[in-house]
């Protein structure tokens, strides 16, 4: 089973606007609609995709969660949004009502820091029930908003919430690879492999060493689609040279176990 652990889709009527212009220099590998995601993932051999909602304001929380909760469960796994401006009870109720298995926290878009005490209250309510994907690092080198979501903050969250299934996106720090090695690598958290425009833009030897040091059993395949091509990313993971067992674990089995899906090994 191959699972893409980091995918973004939007309703057809807002997908183009939500995806934004290519002024960030990153190519789009689809238009952000559910149909485009379905076609792209099927062509790449991806069995399931984790679709991450991000509510940039507290007022949009329910709309975002309702949308990802409505997606076809045979192909998509919904991770909702939380917002610290809403109470922990409101956040959890929205996730449960929409049948969501986890959350995405994106401080750069949502306008708060990972060390916000209000967020800590929400994370305490999630602990033991929901997985949490955290954006970590700046959107581009020199982006001052990177201070809202640093690898050191992920370390502090992991220590504060040992029963929270933490997934640190972008190998623990987008455009902050060295900081991620210092603060996140080796923690009892999962790393996702998304790194637009592709993980091959990093030195493969360093990526392999980082994954080996952290433990392949705590790494999950992810693309950040439509900002990267899943077929290319799968090939890049296979090219790292891990054993078949470790490669299968990274490409899907680790995430399946984390969120309670049947794994490749269990279906063999």
TrEMBL record:
One of its GO terms (molecular function) is hydrolase activity. It comes from freshwater metagenome. GO terms for cellular component: cytoplasm. This is Unannotated protein. CDD domains: metallo-dependent_hydrolases. GO terms for biological process: secondary metabolic process. Residues 3-261 form the Amidohydrolase-related domain. Keywords: Lyase.
